[in-house]
Amino acid sequence: MTDHIYTLEELTENPSFRRWAKGEANTEDKEYWDDWVMAREENRNIARAALAALSGFSLGSASKPDARKAWHRFNQKLEQEYGTISKSTRRDKRAKITDLRWVYRVAAGILIILTTGLMVYFGYPALEDQKQVATRLIEQEISTDFGERKNIRLADGSFITLNANSKLLYSRDPVHTTNIKIHLQGEAFFSVTHREHPGEYPFRVQTADGTVRVLGTEFVVSTRDDKTQVVLEEGSVEVSLDKEVRDEPEQAILKPGQLAEFDSLNDTLVIRKVNTEVYTSWRTRKLIFDRTPLPDVLKRIEHTFGVNVEVRDSGLYNQTISGTIQNAEMSLILSTLSKVISAPIEVQGTTVYVGKS
Strand 210-214 to strand 180-185: parallel, antiparallel, or no bridges (unpaired)? Predict the structure, then answer.
């Protein structure tokens, strides 16, 4: 399906896309990727990035493509599908092409032709320049809307679930493939492939407050409410406040079942024992609470669905929630929550009112 959204990692690791990029795709694959590229501007941008990344993986082995032969083959296909385009038509400035599908096929065709050898589209580098191309960082930004989650598989086998209303910038060194850095705004769950050797680069998650360094583990990072929270499920991670805050950054090693909360603005780092399911269950079909203060539950609803929550009865703030709520549509969550707290919940536009007016 041409509406599928691929990440940079998915494209560079996809055998079908790699064959298409090399000009070795079969008819079915070629038609799929031709249509996918011309379907959306976003697709073309990520395809360019993937082709640039792939070009850095083949030092010294790439041969310069014959662009003239490729163009001739492509032009023949166009003539078969849409009829010959005469030279006089090309010279006629008043001629207009109204078939957008044809226009995008031309754009896709040029992309295919100029990337037959993976490098020409971006300016085919001389052999002495290829080393510089290969060492450029691979970067990709991924974001989610309210009520949306995305699963991301990285080249090193690590897995990320990006929660709603979140954004991450992924950076990887193409030479040292374990040298991965994530800049996160919002909330995400990480399952990081274990680094087998001490010399391998740690997986790093950077927030506005500091850095999380990982050698292989599962944890959640949240940057909601002007602070960073790290909850460790298994393994170990090192957290540190931003170096700009102090001469010697404060650091701590977390153990499974611990939560670290740090705030670079106030220069604080607090660690406590928690029920990790309360902080990780959002990535499943259930939301789990364990004596969770109602304000914390309502904040999660705000962050996930992009609504404002107003509590009409201040006495409700003292309530805590324990149990499981189906993590589905907001209406189902609010309906269950209303029964749990024995108070009406009403939705008006983008505002949720809790309690009697």
Answer: unpaired
CATH number of the domain encompassing residue 219: 2.60.120.1440
Integer distance in angstroms from the first to the last C-alpha of the chain?
49
Tens digit of each residue's pLDDT (9 = 90 or more) over 62-116: 334 444 454 455 455 445 544 444 444 444 444 433 343 433 444 444 444 334 3
Tell me the C-alpha distance between 137 and 53, whole Å: 9
* Structural domain count of the chain: 3
| Domain encompassing residue 310 | 285-354
Sign for the CA dihedral angle at 271, 276, 278, 279 comes to positive
Rounded to whole angstroms, how far apart are CA atoms 117 and 160?
Answer: 32
Residues in contact with 92: Cβ distance below 8 Å, sequence separation at least 6, in sequence order: none
Q: Exposed/middle/buried for 57, CB within 10 Å: 0-12, 13-18, 19+?
A: middle
- Chosen domain end from 215, 248, 277: 277
